[in-house]
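Action item from last week, closing it out:
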Amino acid sequence: MTAQAPAGELTRINRHLPPIVQLAAGSLAAAVIGGIYMASYFPSRPPLGLPITLLIVGLLLLGTALIMLARIGDFGWRSFRVVGFWTLVAYVVQAGMIGYAFVHNGARGSPLVVIIFLLVVFAVSVPLMISFTVGRYQPR
């Protein structure tokens, strides 16, 4: 008696997909580092050079991951959408609470704009990683 998976299971598990999770994780890391850097300066005005650079890097990595995702044909899109929607809802609420904390603690002007964009990257990258991981192992 052997415990072998059917041939269809092996192709779904072992197939090569683009590095979407890795790109989204890099995007998340850039957003978190930028957010922590900015939070360490509040309530005074933080320098924006490093956070803006990290924001651009995060947006580029996230955009690349989304473009690669859009080009995948054989994928569990239904599961991806269901999981992605609910995780996106949860992370938008979480990012909103973090943004409120910054506003409550005196963030104004361009530092607030940078923080909001960093939070957008945060709120999109985590649901992307979770829903892609679920969708890759689901049947079409």
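Closing note: The mean pLDDT is 90.
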